[in-house]
Design a protein that fits this description.
single chain, alpha+beta, six-stranded antiparallel sheet, 2 helices, 6 strands, about 40% strand
Length: about 100
Amino acid sequence: MRRGEIWTYHPPTEQARPRTVLVLSSDGVNDSERPWLLGTELLEQDPQDILGVPLDGRYWISTLGITRLYRPWLNEQVAEIDQDTQERVDVALRAALDL
């Protein structure tokens, strides 16, 4: 599991549908035995926010929707963002968190 990977995420308490999420936590965290990672759900609509990053013309990454992800509920890796998109996500995260 690596930063920038896109996974389906399906907590057992949410029977409706799996969500599609982007892993945001550092690879040091991801490589550890920690059960919780950081990520954000991919949005199907433009969040109308300067901190949103478009992805492949189909999804949006909102850096204001950071959440914890429980590792066992990450079902399947479906994609990985490219380096340019990762850089735009990093810039938006730095702006959102004043880092």
